[in-house]
Write a structure and sequence with these properties.
With about 300 residues, the chain is of the alpha/beta class. It is built from 13 helices and 11 strands. It has 2 domains: about 5-105 and about 235-305, Rossmann fold (3-Layer(aba) Sandwich), CATH 3.40.50; about 110-230, Rossmann fold (3-Layer(aba) Sandwich). β3 (about 80-85), α4 (about 85-100) and β4 form a beta-alpha-beta unit. α10 (about 185-200) packs across α11. It binds D-glutamic acid.
């Protein structure tokens, strides 16, 4: 919270929503964990379905889109930004953090920290989009988390000799979008993608893409019971809580929180597809916003329509 703020301004600030963005609907797996962890917080979710997928795009494009999404959320008066997309986090978290002017939480560090805490044999697997794997940020985040853990003496024996294996699984995103969550084709593709990770003897596998938790059952069965799957949604929600607490931004109002949704594509399609991501709950009143309405610094909400 900014020093010198009046009590009224501080309360207004705390009462603002948390802004969450993703390339589309995958970030809803993170949003649902935020709702669980922080039931008194209001949220604004922006799913950039019109420009999805990000996982196949270049660094520069992902940075540009992420900054634009940030700008849109800031125009909705958010008090924090959650980058609920691994591909955006991997490429743009530094730029978003630099320009946001509010706290920023991304999804990669929490998943990496959880993997390092949970491994028993020091062999960690990561599956993600091509953009995320190519950024190298997961490997960096795992090694950084391991250094911090070793320094604190926690799980030091297991992680003193760490190996990190990464595999890009681009088809998983399309399979989820098409509703192929648990069938023969998905299983065959999973076996093919995950073969090398099984051979490497990993004991934890980070689901480094917001869509992958939906395929958790198939991935778990292919990897076998000795491999723990890490869905970082809950760890991210924990980070959101601690970041709000540390900046004195936890909402204190007793009134019910509000949940708003925006998409850069068809709102009905967004709501239909959102169902599995929100564990069956359907977001209501999703509004369309044109991305070209927030590409300029002052724009923001001009392209909104019901
Ligand atoms: N949300 C993206 C991620 O977590 C997956 C979908 C995409 O490629 O945009 O990387």
């Amino acid at each position: 919270m900014t020093e010198g703020m009046t009590d009224r301004a501080a309360t207004d600030m705390r009462n603002r929503p948390i802004g969450v963005f993703d390339s589309g609907i995958g970030g809803l797996t993170v949003l649902r964990e935020i709702w669980k962890e922080l039931p008194n917080e209001s949220t604004v979710y922006f799913g950039d379905s019109g420009r999805y997928p990000y996982g196949t795009k270049s660094h520069d494009t992902i940075v540009q889109y992420s900054l634009q999404n940030m700008r849109f959320l800031l125009s909705r008066n958010v008090k924090m930004i959650v980058i609920a997309c691994n591909s955006a986090g991997a490429h743009a978290h530094t730029e978003v953090r630099r320009s946001a002017g509010v706290p920023v939480v991304e999804v990669i560090t929490p998943g990496a920290e959880q993997a390092v805490r949970e491994t028993r044999n020091g062999r960690i697997g990561i599956i993600a989009t091509r953009a995320t794997v190519n950024s190298g940020l997961y490997r960096e985040a795992v090694l950084g988390a391991a250094d911090r853990l070793i320094a604190s003496g926690d799980n030091a024996e297991a992680i003193s000799n760490l190996t990190v294996e990464q595999v890009a699984c681009p088809l998983f995103v399309s399979l989820v979008e098409e509703g192929y969550w648990d069938n023969r084709a998905t299983r065959l593709i999973a076996e093919d993608y995950l073969d090398g990770l099984r051979a490497a003897g990993i004991d934890v596998l980070v689901l480094g893409c917001t869509h992958y938790p939906i395929l958790g059952r198939v991935i778990g069965e292919v990897m076998g019971p000795s491999v723990r799957l890490i869905d970082s949604g809950a760890s991210v929600a924990g980070k959101v809580r601690s970041a709000l607490r540390d900046t004195d931004l936890l909402r204190t109002e007793p009134s019910a929180p509000t949940y708003r949704f925006f998409t850069s594509d068809d709102p009905d399609m967004f709501e239909q597809r959102a169902l599995p991501f929100l564990g069956g709950g359907r977001p209501a009143g999703t509004r369309y916003v044109a991305t070209d309405s927030f590409t300029g610094p002052e724009s923001g909400v001009k392209g909104e329509r019901k």
